[in-house]
Amino acid sequence: MTADIARIPPPVPEGVRTALGLTPSGPHYFFYRHRAWVRAAHWINALCLAILLMSGLNIFNAHPALYWGSGSNFDHPALMLGAYADEFGMTTQGVTVIGGHQFDTTGVLGASRIDGQLVARGFPSWATLPGPNWLAMARQWHFAFAWLLVFNAALFVAYGLWSRHFARDLAPTRRDIAHLPREIADHARLKFPHGESAKRYNVLQKLAYCLVIFVLGPLIVMTGLAMSPTMDSAFPILPWLFGGRQSARTIHFLCAFSFFGFFIVHIVMVMLSGSWNNLRSMITGWYVIRGTRHD
Amino acid sequence: MIDRRTLLGRVLAGASTTLLAGCYDLAEKPWFTGLLSQVEGLTREAQHLFAGPHTLAKEFTKADIAPVFRANGTLDPGTPEYKAHEASGFRDWRVTVSGLVDHPLSLSMDRIRAMPQRTQITRHDCVEGWSCIGEWSGPQLALILAAASPKANARYAMFYCADPMTAEGDPTHMYYESLELSEAVHPQTILAHRLNGKTLDVAHGAPVRLRAERQLGYKQPKYLQRIVLVDSLDGIGGGKGGYWEDQGYTWYGGI
User: Fold this and answer.
1) Which residues of chain A neighbour B68 with C-beta distances below 8 Å?
2) CA nearest neighbour of A18 among A290, A266, A294, A293
């Protein structure tokens, strides 16, 4: 008898259940949150962005400096990842230079270890695809997955407009905007919508997704194309728009890290608002809502 | 439930490691590299569609010229033959045009300088990512090819150069490149023998180099000696159409 009682697990507090992304102990039901085409587009996108970022860092390592304007002003880079060597040519220090200010970033940027040996390279091998500095292969990966990303994005946007997914689920409403200060305060206190309100994107989500889909996405594709001399001959407006090919390359880099920043915030938000519930809904479509169904 | 979460963590960690390892493995698989080269074809066709044969690269003003034009790749061919040419001021240097042409040519530098000249201030884009603006002068390749009368089946222009690509100076590994005929006869494709108003120096490809302004730097060979029109890239060098292409770079160099 006593042994049986000992086997009953202690109740998990509801806050912990949510944080762990467990199914609530109270009444709940499954809600179909993401349709199949959204889920497919999401995961193709995730794969493309991961490969594009890592192959992009490998490409960057071929000339780890950024400039402003049409040409490269080698003496005044906007950003440079460099290295110092001793009199025997052994790399001793990695540095990051931003607008003339130098920071020691040994081990990560400018110089990092390969098989225990410190070598001069912009981004470390664990962050690049392929791992070794291999410009030819990195370019092939980058362009292949850039095509896939653009095809995927074009289908997503076309279907999102046609199915009214954007109009219904993504466009912020007047009520959303009015709730903006409240939403920011709630997010800052890590209070996330539950129950019925979790069926819709909140205004911060809507704004973040719209920014990524309609601003950052087109910007990174256009700045990428502006680096192609043949595209520049076909569309001289491309490099002009961004202040020159080297500026376009710098903006491309900033966009890539904005995507990375979005990714980090996205992952943190997914975890804070229930990892498993969010992940399951993006894989199977089904999301657990606490409470009883009202519709 | 906890098990599920632990499992999830392991699956995610495992997936990312496997994904990376998988990517490295994929890069070695012929079917995958084959797929990647199909993408090169897609990029080439798409860019042809947008750019066509006639769009011009932007031409800049003298104020835009870089104070120092970066020299890249071979900085001095260094062979005895090249040193002899350099010592004589490239008096006996020849650029020959042969292959699928009706009238093979052998042009001296005097002859190249005597032809109608085109001067263009353009942006040089290196595959590494940097750019430099410089002023180039020389005759249009289109004029030279017209004088040689290409045969109907000529598809590519091969460019053979005087710089060996191995430390030992192995004569079987000299720099070479190729362009589609349409790109070779583009109005901004010139045999440049002047840079920024001065005779081309050794580091930048003396006495004459190719400029193809819609292409990346590696498609614009220096120390140019022979132009050969062919109908296929097969069986030439490593069969990929150029020195860097044989090392894995894409043949299409417009992006």
Assistant:
1) 74
2) A290
- State how far the Cα of B139 lies from the Cα of B135, in Å rounded to an integer: 14
Q: Letter for the amino acid at A121? A: R
Nearest to B134 by CA among B217, B218, B68: B68
How many H helices and E strands in chain B? 7, 11
pTM: 0.91
Contact with chain A for residue B86, Cβ under 8 A:
no
Please tell me if residue B58 touches chain A, with a CB cutoff of 8 Å. yes
Shortest distance between the Cα of A141 and any Cα of chain B, in A, equals 7
| Residues of chain B neighbouring A280 (CB-CB closer than 8 A) | none
Nearest Cβ partner for B8 among A65, A235, A276: A276
d(CA A151, CA A55): 19
Q: Measuring CA to CA, which residue among A275, A193, A167 is closest to residue B1?
A: A275
Q: Is residue A137 within 8 Å of A119, Cβ to Cβ?
A: no
Nearest to B133 by CA among A80, A245, A223: A245
Question: pLDDT tens digits for chain A (295 residues)?
Answer: 444 454 555 677 777 776 666 677 788 888 899 999 999 999 999 999 999 999 999 999 999 999 999 999 999 999 999 999 999 999 999 999 998 899 999 999 999 999 999 999 999 999 999 999 999 999 999 999 999 999 999 999 999 999 999 999 999 999 999 989 999 999 888 888 877 788 889 999 999 999 999 999 999 999 999 999 999 999 999 999 999 999 999 999 999 999 999 999 999 999 888 888 899 999 999 998 888 876 5
Angle at A30 between CA A28 and CA A33, to 5 degrees: 130
Mention every residue, 6+ apart, whose C-beta is less than 8 A from residue A47: A145
Q: Is the CB of A123 inside 8 Å of chain B's CB atoms?
A: no
* Contact across the interface for A141 and B27, Cβ inside 8 Å: yes
Q: Do A22 and B123 touch (CB under 8 A)?
A: no
DSSP A165-196: HIIIIISPPHHHHHTHHHHHHHHHTT----GG
Verify cis geometry, omega within 30 degrees of 0, for the bond prior to A130: yes
How far apart (Å, rounded) are the C-alpha atoms in residues B255 and B51? 12
CB contacts under 8 A, B 96-155 vs A, are 123, 125-133
Give the closest of B20, B27, B125 to A229, CB-based: B125
Pull the structure tokens for residue B112.
């190249």
**What distance in Å separates the CA atoms of residue A275 and residue B130, rounded to the nearest whole number?**
42
Residues in chain A: 295
Q: Pick from B1, B128, B215: which is nearest to A63 by CB? A: B128
Look at the alpha carbons of B87, B92, B95, B96 in this order and tell me if their dihedral is positive or negative: negative
Residue that has been written with the tokens 């996330």 in this structure:
A192
